[in-house]
Model the fold of this input.
Amino acid sequence: MAGSSDQSIRVICGPTAAGKTHAATWFAGMADVSVVSADSRQLYRGFDVGTAKPTAAESLAAPHFGIDVLAPTERGSSAWWADRADAWIDDIVAQGRTPVVVGGTGLYLRALFGESFEEPPLDGARREAIRALTAPWATTELRRWVDALDPARAHLGRTQLLRAVEVALLTGRRLSSLHRELARPPRRRARYLVVDPGPSLAHAIQQRATTMMSGGWPEEVRRLMDEVPGDAPAWNATGYRMVRAMVRGEVTPRHAVEQVVIETRQYAKRQRTWFRHQLGGEDVTRCSGNEPDWAERASAWWREGDA
RNA sequence: GGCGCCGUGGCCAAGUGGUAAGGCGGCAGACUGCAAAUCUGCUAUUCGUCGGUUCGAUUCCGACCGGCGCCU
Done:
């Protein structure tokens, strides 16, 4: 483990359905790879088909961390994940294996490889009280509050507004100030390989959706509906609500697939925007995964990591 | 063949004699402890076609084309 913490970690990221897991499996042929999944949905036990968890063969090719580590009712967070990922990487290195972080949850990657901050202790009970208070507020109203409490964050989405209010009320400080004052440097350095097949991704998404539908997704959802409360965080994954509506007979299978494909495409688009602008570091290699010299370029990216 | 209704951006859809709501989709962007989440911006010089009335028509009139319905 000694001397390993300043080593850059290889990270394979990109939009959903771009073949990141395939790429990781391919690299397993070049070293004893262990994969750390940076995917906020594959965390959840039981949500398998719709989150495209690694297949048995892929799990066999390389041990995976970060999969099935939460109950569907538990709530994760980027910082929570980064703590664990940091430890998993240590373990993997200690075993003499090569860690590869694979995933599409940009915020999680940032928590591990980008700047973060030391969150001051927040009182649990008061936190719950504030959540209960703000939950019914309309987003526009929430935004008015943040405009006063922490204007630098007022342009963001509801999730971020709730957080800004919570931190302001609990600490008496602006979250945007705390980010600055309590900033800590990145814990790890990353060497990114951004995999994106370009225009053909739309087709891959379509293909994957129909494969999932005929591959046991509705059955999985039917099972989960009996075991998991309808408001559990795990349901918050692309397509699951739509498939649930289909299983209940509220929408036709045809409509369900159509919508799942659209939702997935929209998600992939947001991921592209993230990986285009938010990766921060300069160590970014982009490849399409279906260009003729893909293997060559990918190998080069891999080998440069040993230098 | 006759009568009636309709024809607005990729799709759905409001609308008025004074110069085109909204939704979906698409595109672009934001994002530091809910992120497969949550938000923001942009997206019709033009209302089936051609003529007419009018200072001015997407809105009124006529013809034609296309769709739907009813009747013979």
About this structure: Chain A has a mean pLDDT of 94.
